[in-house]
Amino acid sequence: MSGAGRHTQLLHAGAPTLRDGAGPVNVPVVRTSTVRFATQQDLESRQHRRAAGERVASYGRHGLDTHQALEDALSTLEGGHRAFLAPSGLSAITLVLLALLSPGDHALVSDSVYAPVRRVDKTLLQRLGITVEYFSPAHDDLAALIRPETKLVYLESPSSLLFEVLDLPELAAVARERGVPVAVDNTWSGGWFQQPLRLGANISIQAATKYIAGHSDVMQGAVVVDSPALAERIAATHEALGLAIGADDAYLSLRGLRTLPLRLAQHQRNATEVAQWLQRHPQVGRVFYPALPDDPGHALWQRDFSGASGLVSFAFRDAGASAASAFVDALRWFAIGASWGGYESLALVAPPERLREHRTWQGNAPVVRLHVGLEDPQDLLADLDQAFHRTLT
Ligand SMILES: Cc1ncc(COP(=O)(O)O)c(C=O)c1O
């Protein structure tokens, strides 16, 4: 497929081969726990091939046709060597941390990271004798923070509350020069608007729960690596943790992937309209959306991304802490909900204690994060307008 455009590749990656000259467009949903073998020798040969690193299944946990088709499509999407599936975005993150870090190791993590990463650190990594240091890529010099025992740089760009865009090529070059692998949470871009492996990172992680599945009906994570050496390390930990997802969920993500670029383009159009409308609103102090020319991350976003997702945050201008919850309560089309990436609009009050963890955030105004869905934008604007009236007049 090399040489074909990205849309073409994404639509055809993982397609089933024809048998006797015919077959379905989509890969079947192959549900199984046990894999049957004709002979003991067939079983042993499969086990040996797997032990040698070949991606074949000798048991249902390894995933059969549906899983492999999704893995192929994800590798194509991210431009990687191999993909691994996990039961949630968070378990995909934990998989990477456990695969790359051992007792005594040190990891550098950007401070605007998805907050539950800090919980993995507190509840698991600290107990294993692994030290995590949070740094602000905007304020700190990564080169000066890397120690001999630093074994991972973990980033999220843009971050998922205020969308801080990191200079990924620069950070990855610094880490690579010192032999430290770089993992990036790429969920915001869906893997379509940004390809971290092409920008110098070694591992791209996504909560497939969000834009890949795209319909708020699947929990899933994906890890895509750039090399056979990293694939071997991730594979060993993946196997040890017994991570597995159901074939139905793998199918739903594969189906979601086929329309990912179209959905993202519409999310971007609607979100841009909402972000520009919010910028003009007298009760809004600041809008966070990297596609806006005055967003601090705009220049990096323009350089490294081909589009922007449906997430827009805003800070109130002159409002007390209770304004944010009154505002989201007043919304009609935006449901209150913690996830995003589905077709529908959502709103969430950004917890102030989370914002304070980001060194680039200096304010104390209440912040609301919107996920702008695929509804008619005029309905969304009218909804926001009535919510401002009901909250602040
Ligand atoms: C940026 C980011 N990464 C990872 C996750 C975790 O994904 P999941 O909810 O599938 O565990 C989320 C979930 O909100 C997220 O926003």
Automatic annotation (TrEMBL):
Domain of life: Bacteria
Protein name per its UniProtKB record: Cystathionine beta-lyase
UniProt cofactor(s): pyridoxal 5'-phosphate
Enzymatic reactions: L,L-cystathionine + H2O = L-homocysteine + pyruvate + NH4(+)
Keyword Lyase attributed: yes
Enzyme type, top EC level: lyase
Sequence positions bearing N6-(pyridoxal phosphate)lysine: K210
Keyword Ligase carried by entry: no
Single Gene Ontology BP annotation: L-cysteine catabolic process to pyruvate
Any Pfam family the entry gives: Cys_Met_Meta_PP
Gene3D superfamilies documented for this protein: Aspartate Aminotransferase, domain 1, Type I PLP-dependent aspartate aminotransferase-like (Major domain)
Matches recorded under InterPro entries: Cys/Met-Metab_PyrdxlP-dep_enz (IPR000277), Cys_b_lyase_bac (IPR006233), PyrdxlP-dep_Trfase (IPR015424), PyrdxlP-dep_Trfase_major (IPR015421), PyrdxlP-dep_Trfase_small (IPR015422)
Family: Belongs to the trans-sulfuration enzymes family.
PANTHER family in alphabetical order: CYSTATHIONINE BETA-LYASE-RELATED
Gene Ontology molecular-function annotations: cysteine-S-conjugate beta-lyase activity; pyridoxal phosphate binding
Record's keyword terms, sorted: Lyase, Pyridoxal phosphate
Matches recorded under NCBIfam families: cysta_beta_ly_B
CDD domains noted in UniProt: CGS_like
EC number: 4.4.1.8
